[in-house]
Amino acid sequence: MRRIAPLLLTLLVLAPAGGAAADTTPATLTVVGEGTARLAPDLAVIVVDFERRLKDPVAARNSVSKRSQRLIDAATALGVDRKDIQTATITLSRSVLRPLHKGGRQRIRYTAKGEVTVRVEHVDVVGKVLNSATTAGASTIDGPNFGFSDPTAGRAAAEQAAVQDARKRADAAAALVGQKVVGVQSLDLSPNSGAPTPDNQAAAGTTAPAPQTTPVPTPVSAGTEEFDATVTAVFLIAPV
Questions:
Q1: Helix ranges restricted to H, the chain
Q2: pTM metric for this prediction
Q3: I want to staple 126 with a disulfide (CB 3.0 to 4.6 A). Which of 51, 85, 220, 221 is the partner?
Q4: In a domain, 53, yes or no
Q5: Which DSSP symbol is given to 151?
Q6: Residue 188 belongs to a domain with what CATH number?
Q7: Do 16 and 81 belong together in one domain?
Q8: Using CA atoms, how far apart are residues 96 and 115, in angstroms rounded to an integer?
């Protein structure tokens, strides 16, 4: 059940002592308004890791580089801007493995890793980018993580709804006491308003299978995210 925010009504007494002129300062009405907005994300971020462990360090690095380049080429072919593709990390490490049998020689292996972050501004191609990452030989896929190109859009929409709610409640409350809203004295936007609550997002942290020639199309639904806002408004009221 929605919590009913309190209303504060202050009416000034119009009966000053000593025959002084009546105080014409408008009375005030303080109202707490609440608003909600639901927006569909318009971008997604996908993080793809490539990993290869081989005997030769150069071969391991080359393998990761080729796989990363395959993803970059595929993403740009799908319309992703090159500036929205970032090579986040490139690492190479050496490890010593135990002999296969007693008295055998130690085995040296080199592990190369590369991470590519793809920012997709057209959510309708997110599934195709995920397929491209799998085909390129990704070791792990993290995403899609949906978001907004304008991070303030949801908060602004929720605050607008909250202000409208406050005005509606003020009009109704003022009418009950024979008053009407004639202005606004102050409007306080809560600093904590606009925190998004995910509503329907695709699963993240998907582990990619081995490369396939024709991967099954990946269904992706961006869903919507909900934004809530609370405002405190002080309205000026006067007799009808």
A1: 57-77, 126-136, 153-176
A2: 0.69
A3: 220
A4: yes
A5: T
A6: 3.30.110
A7: no
A8: 24
Q: Domain total for the chain? A: 2
First-to-last C-alpha distance (Å) of the chain: 33
Query: How far, in Å, CA of 37 to CA of 23, rounded?
Result: 42
Domain that residue 190 falls in:
7-39+152-194+229-239
Task: Give the Cα separation of 229 and 188 in Å (integer).
Answer: 11
As a three-state string, the secondary structure of 68-79 is HHHHHHHHHHCC
pLDDT band of 106, cuts 50, 70, 90: confident
pLDDT digit string, tens, across residues 195-215? 444 444 433 343 444 445 566
What number is the average pLDDT over the span 216-236? 89
CA distance 211 to 136: 7
**Looking at the domain assignment, is residue 212 inside a domain?**
no
What is the rounded CA–CA span in Å between residue 94 and residue 139?
Answer: 19
User: Hunting for tokens 């007799």 — which residue is that?
Assistant: 239
Cβ atoms < 10 Å from Cβ of 159: 24
- Counting runs of H as helices and runs of E as strands, what totals does the chain give? 3, 9
Q: For every residue of 152-200, which 3-state class applies, written as one string?
A: CHHHHHHHHHHHHHHHHHHHHHHHHCCEEEEEEEEEEECCCCCCEEECC
One-letter amino acid of 26: P
* Dihedral sign from CA coordinates of 36, 38, 43, 45: positive
Alpha-carbon span 120 to 85, nearest angstrom: 9
Is a pLDDT exceeding 50 seen at residue 57? yes
